[in-house]
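Sample entry copied in:
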Amino acid sequence: MASISKLSIRGIRSFSPNDEEQVIAFCFPLTIIVGANGCGKTTIIEALKYSVTGSLPPGNKSGQSFVHDPRSLGMSVVKANVKLRFNNRGNQSMVVIRSMEVTQKKSTASFKALDGIIRTQDPNTGERVSLSHKCTELDKQIPALMGVSKPILEHVVFCHQEDSSWPLQEGAVLKKRFDDIFDSTRYAKALEAIKASRKEYAAQVKDLKADLEGLKSHKHAASGFLEELENCKDQISQFDDEIQRCHEGMEKERETLAEASAVLAEIQQFDYEVDSKQQELERQEAVLASQKDMMGQDDMTGRYSYDELKTMLRELNDKQYGNQAMRELIDKEREIEEITRGLERSRNVANELNAKKGKLEAEKDAYNLLLKQRFKVMEEIHKAHGVECDLTQTQDDDTLTQGTAASRMSLSTLFTSGGTTLGEDITISQEDVEAFTRALTQKELSLKTKLNAAKERHRSDEDEMQKEIAELLAKLSAVESNKKRIEEAKREALRELEQVKSNMSSSYSRVRKADVEEARRQAADLAKSRDQFNNDPRREDIIREFKVLEDKLKSLSESIEQDTKIRDQLRSQSDAQAEIDMLEKQAAQEFDGLKDKIRENSGFLSANGEVVRVSEDDPVCPLQVVKDNIRQKYETAEREIDRCHKTVSDLRSKVTEKNALLTNHKGRLTQLRLKANQLDHEDGPVQKISRVVNALVREQRELVDEDEIYPESPPTEVIKFISKQINELGAVLKDEQISKVVKRIKKMSKIACPCCTRDFVSAAEYKAFQNRMAELADEDTSELIRVNQAKSKETAAVLSKLERWRQTISDNINSYNEFSNINAEIRELETHIEAEGDAELNNLKTALEKEEATAGSKKGGIQSLAEPIRGVKNKKDELKRNLLGYVGNDSRDLKRVERDITESSVAKEKAYLEISKLNNEQKSLNEKISRIANQATAAEKNARDKEDSYNRDQIAMKRQDELNELLQKLAVEETSLDKSKHPLHAERLKKESNRDSMRRSNEIEESRLGDELRSFEKDALRLQEIVDKIDDYIRSNKEREMEQIESRLISNAGMIKEDEAKIERLKPEIDLLKKQVDDSERQKTKIQNNLDLIKLERRVNELTDEVAKMVDKRGLMGAEEAEMRCSKAKAKYNEYKENKTRTEGRKQGLDEQKRMLRRKLKEPEYHDVEERHRVKMIEHETTQIVVHDLDKYYDALDKALLRYHGMKINDINKIIRELWTLTYKGEDITNIQITSDQDSGGRATRSYNYRIVMSKGNTQMDMRGRCSAGQRVLASIVIRLALAETFCLNCGVMALDEPTTNLDYENKRGLAIALAQIIASRAAQSNFQLVVITHDEDFVSMMKQELSSQTGFNMPERYYQVSREQGHDGRFYSKIHAIDWDEL
C-alpha cells in the first residue's frame, strides 16, 4: 500500500530558493506540524498536493505566486523544486521531483513548469533509475502509482485550507466534486457510448440484411454467366482443333508448293542462264566486229598466229629492259629526286635556325634592359640608404668581340658622374655586384642592430619605471586593505553592539536572580499537581466502559441491520401475495375470455380433432391438457410453417434468379443492339463490305452473263472470287519475256518455222522471217510489246481496284462476322424473353403469394390459442417462485420483527447516551488535567525563560564593554592610515606621468627605425630579383649559342645554292631520255591489241557451243509436270486457308461472347460475388451478436453503477454517523449524511445531485446555510475522513490543514478524541499516516493526552515546527525543525 516518507521544499512561497532544502520526514501513524500564522505551514500541504497531482493551490492558476517572488531577491529568474519520497501501492520506494521557475519581466511575471523526474531503484540490479516525464504524463502516473484517483488526492487527502469546506458549497460545485470522486461522469459517458454503438450496429444489421439479399440474387445470376462461359470455352476448344487441322494441311501443301516452285525456279534460272549466254555471245560478236573495224591496217591476225604475236611482244619487252636510255632515265630521275629531298631538308633547317636566332636576340634585349634596371636600383639604394663600396668600371661598345677597359672607382664617384660618359654604357662586373650585396647585408645588419638596441633600451627603462610604480601601488594597496579591514571591524562591532543592546532587557523589566528562583518553585508545585491528576484511576475505568459500550453498539447495529433486511423481505412477501390475488382475478377474467376464444375457434379445433373442456374449480389441469394438445398441434403447424417458409424461400430465390437472368438478358439485348448499330452505321465495317459487294456485282454483270457473286454472298466467298480474278489478271507477260520468247523462236528457226513447223522455201523467206522476229524482239519497235504494254496498264488499274476491295473486306470481315453473330443472338434473346421470361416469372410469383398466405394463416391461428394460456401460466409460476424465495428460516412475523427493531434502536440510543455521559465525564477530567498540565507547562516555560533572560543580560553587558574598547582602538588606527596615504598617492601620479611620456618618445623612435629597416629590405629584395634574372641569363650561355646558329645558317645557305645548281643541270638530260622511251611503247601496244582480238574470236566460238548444249538440256527438265503440281498445291492450300478463315471468324465471335461474359462477371455486382456473399453473411451474423452483447453490457453496467453508488453512499454515511457522534458535542444536530437524488431522464443520461443534510430530532434539512462556521468545519472534516476511509484502500495517507478553525473548546476536544481513536484503531495498518497541521498548541496538547491514553501503537518520537528565520542575506525565510515529542 502507498505511503509518503519524506518531503523537501526549496523556493516555494516563503521558502528560500538559495539556502539548503527544508526537509520533513513523515512518521507512522501521526505527523504533527505546528507553527505561527504566516510561517509556511500550508505551503507543506500545497507542496504535497503539487508533487502528486500537479495541481496549483486555489487562486494560483498561473503559478506566479506559488514560487518565491523574484522581486524580493532582486533577481530576474527564481527556480524552485519539490521532492517527495513515497512508497507506491506495491510498497516500492520512489522519488518524484517537480521543478519550476518564475521569470520576472518589466511589468509581468511568467511561470513555467519544467519536466519532472521519477526516480526508483531496480529490484534486480539495485541501480538507481531516473526517468524524465512531461508534466501532464507525471500528473497521470503518480496517482496511478499511489492507487488513488486524482480527485481523491486533491479534495480529500491533500485538501487545501481555503478549499476544506467544499462539502458545504453550492450544488454545482458539490456535484462536480462528488462526480469526480465517484467517477460517475466517466461511466455515464460509457453508457452513452454503448447506447450509441448499439444503435449504430442495429442500423448496420438492417443495411447488411438488405445487402445480403441483393448479393444472393447476384450470386444466382453469376452462376448462369459462368455456365455460359464454360460452354463458350468448349466450343472455342473445338474451333481451335479445326484451325490446327487446317494449319497442318496448309503447311503440308506449302511444302509441296515449295518443292514444285523450286523446280520451276530452277528451270527459270536455267532459262535465264541460257539467255545470259546468248546475250553474251551477241555482245562478244558485236565487240569482235567493232574491234576489226577499228584495227584497220594494224590487223595482223591474218598474217600472224597468236603464238607468233606473243613471241614478238616478249622480244619487245626484253629489248625494253635492255635499253640503255630507259636505264639512264630511271637513274637520272632517282638522282634528281634525291637532290630535291636534300634541298627541302636544308630549307627546313634554315627556318628553324632563324626562329631560334630571333628568340635569342629578344632575350639579349631583355638582358640589357635588366642591366640598366640593376644600375638604376643600385643608384637608388645608394642615395636612399648610403651604401658604399669600390666598383670596377667597364665601358663597352656595341661590338661583342672587342675588349674592355677597366678602372676602379667608388659608388659616390660613379653615381655623381651621371652613369654615362660620351654616350657609352657603364657595365658592372659580377664581383662588383657581390661587393654591393655584401654592403647591403652589412647595412641591413646595422639597421637591425640599431632597432633591437633601441627596443632593449626602451624595455629596460620602462621596466625600471614600472617597478617603481608597482612598489608605490603595493604600499597604497596595503594602506587601503588595512583601512577596509578597520572599517569592516568597526561595522561588525557596531552591528554586534546594536544587537547586544536590542537583546538586553530594559532596566525596569530586567530579570533578577530572585525572580528566577521564585519561578522555579512555582513550576515544581504545578508539575506535582499535574502528576496527581494523570494518575487518577477513574480515567482507566472510563476507557473500559467505553470499550463495553462500543461492543454493545456494534452488536446492536448488526442486529438492527439484520432485522431490517428481514422486515424488507416480509414486506415484499405481502406485496407478492397481493399481486398473486390480483393475478388470480385476472386469470378468472382471462379464463372467461379463453372460453370465448375457444368458442370462436371451435370450428378450427374440431377440424383438427380437438375438444376443449375447462371448469372454474380446477382450471389448471384442463388447461394443461389443452396446452399439451395445442403444443403438439402447434409443433406440427410450426413444422408445416417451416416447410412453407422453405418453399417460399425457394420460390423467392427462383423469382430473384429469374429476375436477375431476365434483367441480364435484357441488358445483354440492349448491349447487342447498341453494338450492332455501331457496326452498321454509315462508315462502319458492314456498310463498307456491302458497298464493295454491290460494286463487284455491278461490274460482274457488265462483263459476264452468269453471276458468281450476289449481294447476299458471304465475305469469304467474295474474297475467294476477288483472289481468283487477281490471279487470272496477274498472268500478264512482261516485255522482257516477250522479247526472250521471240528471240528463242528466232534461234529455233534454222530449217522450219518453230510455230507452224513449216520449212522455209528459200533463203529470202528465211531472212524475212529472221528480220520480222528481230523487229518483234526489239523493245522499241515491237508491236507485240506495245499491245502488251497497253493491256498491262488496263490490267494494273483493275488489279489495284480488286486489291483495294480485297483489303477492305479483309480488314472488316471480323466485324462483319461479329455483326452476323450479334443479329443471330439478338433474335435468339428476343425469342427467349418473349417465350419464357415473363410467363415463368408470373407463375413463380403466384406460387410465392399462395404459400405466404397459407403460412401466415396457420401461424396466426395457432399463436392466438397458445398465447393467453402461456402468459397466465408463466406469470403464476414466476410469482410462486418469488414467494418461495422470500421464505427463510426465521419464524417471526412482520410485527414482531418491527418491534425488535424498535427495541434495538432504543437500546442503541441508550448506549449512545451512556457514551455521551462518559464523554462528558472524561471531558471534565481531561479538562482538569489539561488545565493543570497547561499551567505546569507554562510555569516551566516561564522559569526557563526568566533564567535564559537573566543569563543573556549578564553576557550582553560584558560584551558591550569589550566592543566599546575595540571601537576606540580602531578609530586611532584609521586616523594614522589616512595620514600616510596622501604622499604615496602624489608620488604614484608623478611616476605614471613620466612613464607615459617616455613610452610616447620610445614608440616614435622605434617606428622610425622600423620604417627605415622595412624600406631597406624592400629595395634590397627588388635588387635581388633583378640580379637573379641577370644571373640566369649569364648561366644559360646565350651568346655562344647565337654564334653557333649564325655559323650554321651560313653553311646551310651554301648547301642550298649547290643543290639548286645540280637540279638545273639534270633537267635537259631527262627530257631527251623520255623521248627515246616513248617510241618503243607504241609498238608494244599494237601487238597487244592483235593478241586481244584473237582471244575474243576464240571466246565467241566457245559461247556458240555452250548455247547449243544448254538448249538441248532445257528440253529434258520436265517443266509441264512441275507446273501441274504447283497448281494443285495452290488449290488445296487456298481451300485450307478459306476453311481456317471461316473457323477463325466463328471463333472470334465466341471469343467476343467470352470476353463479354468475363466483363459481365468482372462488373461490380458480379465480381467475386460468392466470397462477398459469404463475408457479408458472416458480417451480418457477427453484427447481430454484437448488438445482443451490447444490450447485455449496457444492462450489466447500469445495474452495477446503481448498486455501486448506493453501496458507497451507505458506507460513507455509516462512517459519517459514527464519527459525528464521536466528535460533535452539541445537542442540536444528532447526525449528518450525504443524500443523492437521481436526475430525471433515461438511463444513458443518468446523473446524481448531492446534498449534505443534518438531522435535528426526526427532521432532516439541508446543512448548507443552516449551520455555524464551526459546524461547517467539523462536518467537512468528518466527511473527508469518511471519504478517505471508503476510497483510499491502497493509500492510508490523510492530511488535515488547520482542522480547529472556528471550533470551540468542546468540539476541538471531540475532534482530538476522534482522531486519537482513529489513529489507535488503524495503527496496525502499516501505511496509515495522519498529517495534522495547526497553529493551536492547545489542540496539540489534547492530541498528546488522548494518544497517551490509547494503547496498541507507539507514540511518535518528534513533531515539526515551522518558523520564519533570518537568512544570511538578512531576509526572513520559512524553516522546518524537528523537535522531540517530549518537549511539546
